[in-house]
Design a protein that fits this description.
The complex is a heterodimer of chains A (107) and B (119). By secondary structure, chain A is an all-beta fold. Chain A is 0% helix and 50% strand.
Chain lengths: 107, 119
């Protein structure tokens, strides 16, 4: 199984900050990497797929990069609505696996 | 409006069975891979099972193989998860989700149904 490791597990930041979340795969997943945002009590929402493609309707302040084993999600200027938990997901091989999550909280 | 609504969750004793349903609307259900993903209380996301558009291919996480069965009825726009021999570690919110291809990212999610396995 491919293990997905996110860092940090928790991130404290302020509105307007630029933040980066990292996701590392235990083996190459090519560019088959997606990012999700989840708010408490809600279903996850797809932000980015194929490592860097922005899902329709997602604000352009979100961006993704990377390939192989190392990936990043960047939010260019944090907005109040962005405080949530973020997950990466590899869809290169079964079983599909997710990172453990990064909780983005208000400083 | 594109949406999926899960049902069938509840409290069940260890060793018991439960059948979850997911009703899809607003899109051509038969054109998409479908998936179940679960989330234990306070924990992260765990992929459970995938099914191809025609039901001809199914994939499972090892921890549920032989106990859970994913199925679909395209005429009813519905996805199912039959869960047998339930264990405490199966306690979670179960979400159905839509995939664009085999081993996909998931672009539409249901809100989930809670399954609690406890005596």
């Amino acid at each position: 199984d491919i293990q997905m490791t996110q860092s940090p597990s928790t991130l404290s930041a302020s509105v307007g900050d630029r933040v980066t979340i990292t996701c590392r795969a235990s083996q190459s997943v090519s560019n088959w990497l997606a990012w999700y945002q989840q708010k408490p009590g809600k279903a996850p929402s797809l932000l980015i797929y194929k490592a860097s493609t922005l899902q329709s309707g997602v604000p352009s302040r979100f961006s993704g990069s990377g390939s192989g084993t190392d990936f990043t999600l960047t939010i260019s200027s944090l907005q109040p609505d962005d405080f949530a938990t973020y997950y990466c997901q590899q869809c290169n091989s079964y079983p599909i696996t997710f990172g453990q999550g990064t909780r983005l909280e208000i400083k | 409006e594109v949406q999926m609504v899960e049902s069938g969750g509840g409290l069940v004793q260890p060793g018991g069975s439960l059948r979850l349903s997911c009703a899809a609307s607003g899109f051509t259900f038969s054109s998409y891979w479908m998936t179940w993903v679960r989330q234990a209380p306070g924990k992260g996301l765990e992929w459970v099972a995938d099914i191809k558009q025609d039901g001809g291919e199914k994939y499972y996480v090892d921890s549920v193989k032989g106990r859970f069965t994913i199925s679909r009825d395209n005429a009813k726009n519905s996805l199912y998860l039959q869960m047998n021999s339930l264990r405490a570690e199966d306690t979670a919110v179960y979400h159905c989700a839509r995939g664009l291809r085999i081993r996909s990212e998931f672009d539409i999610w249901g809100q989930g149904t809670m399954v609690t396995v406890s005596s």
